[in-house]
Amino acid sequence: MASPNLLQWEEDFDSRSLSSANDFRSDTVTLPTGAMLASILSDAPSFGDDVYSEDGPTNSLETYVGDLTSLQNAVFVLSGTMGNQIALRSHLTQPPYSVICGRQSHVYEWECGMTSIFSQAHMIPVIPSSESRAYLTLEDIIPNIVSDDGDTHGAPTRVIVLENTASGKIVPVEEVRKISDYASERGIKVHLDGARLWNACYTSTSPAATPAQAVESAKDLLRAYCLPVDSVSLCFSKSLGAPCGSILLSNDPSFISRARHFRKALGGGLRQLGVLASPARVAIDHIFLSGVHLPRANAIAKQLEDSWKRMGGQVQKGLSQETNFVWLNLNETGVKDDEFIKIAKEEGVKVGSYGRLATHYQISEGAVAALERAFQRVLTAGKRSGS
Predict the structure, then answer these.
(1) What DSSP line would sit under 285-342, residue for residue?
(2) For the residues 366-371, what does the mean pLDDT come to?
(3) How would you class 384 by CB atoms within 10 Å of its CB: exposed for 0-12, middle for 13-18, buried for 19 or more?
(4) Prior bond of 95 cis (ω within 30°)
(5) Is this prediction's pTM over 0.90?
(6) What is the mean pLDDT of the chain?
(7) Sign of CA dihedral 284, 286, 287, 288
(8) Is 110 helix (H, G, I), strand (E, B) or coil?
């Protein structure tokens, strides 16, 4: 039980203006709440050495998320990259072998080529066959599978990596099941990079639903996404606002046992890990299971895309808003990334490159209005230049 002084501190902390409130560069800029930080102190008496599996908050978190996803077995890791790479290494045994993934996927583009280094795997990056979607379908995957047919020239495919969401786009549950069923019949494992899966769980909720109803729907959808695959990684610092960390889950306890071994090999065998696990637990309870915060993040993205289009802007092909990403087509305006960043900064907000905007629950209404002013300036500048 938190002391009155600690509860007052939480309230005072949350009343401060957060630097994340005007930052659209990424949902990783979300800051821990007072309750998250306070949980470190309140849970401290149950801290222990996680290498010996004696850290209370970490053990509790792993059990809790295992139950939430119905995958049962889990291990806390420091980052999404660590979770993905440990998952692939734990699925793979003796090379040669190959891993299929999306050409724009995080494991291929943003993890330092670690799959080839750590797992010695040949990566097969696949471009979706239709420009109208950002994710892979079974039809995209099948022609790229290297069969284990005895031909000594190839590296048989052992793992397929799906990413949900992919550039903010949702891979439908039915597609995840199709891919997983096909892979399972051929002895191929499926890993789901679900760094932003939390947001995908709040897109089918009826506008008339209460927060409690929205939460139940989100929990059902989370389980539906997780159960068909062999492993899933979920991030606590994207959108949820925890200071750090991800979790790797599987129905196979031996897989998680191997994952713990490889986590240690990558320097992830931490000691009093409760300093990270406690805030992560609060992030799930207060943010994901609020039924309010993630729907708001998705709604802000929809509002921004609608405003951009209403002003005459276009979005990038196949990347219309579904969750918390908006993809502005700056090429059509004639305005370069650096000019857009400069205009946004003058209006008091931060944006990144590639025309990507990431929304999160800590964005303020004032920041939304400021970004809409930046939109108008960008489109006006484009008209002057004749674009």
Answers:
(1) HHTGGGSSHHHHHHHHHHHHHHHHHHTT--BPTT---SSSEEEB-GGGTT--HHHHHH
(2) 97
(3) exposed
(4) no
(5) yes
(6) 94
(7) positive
(8) coil
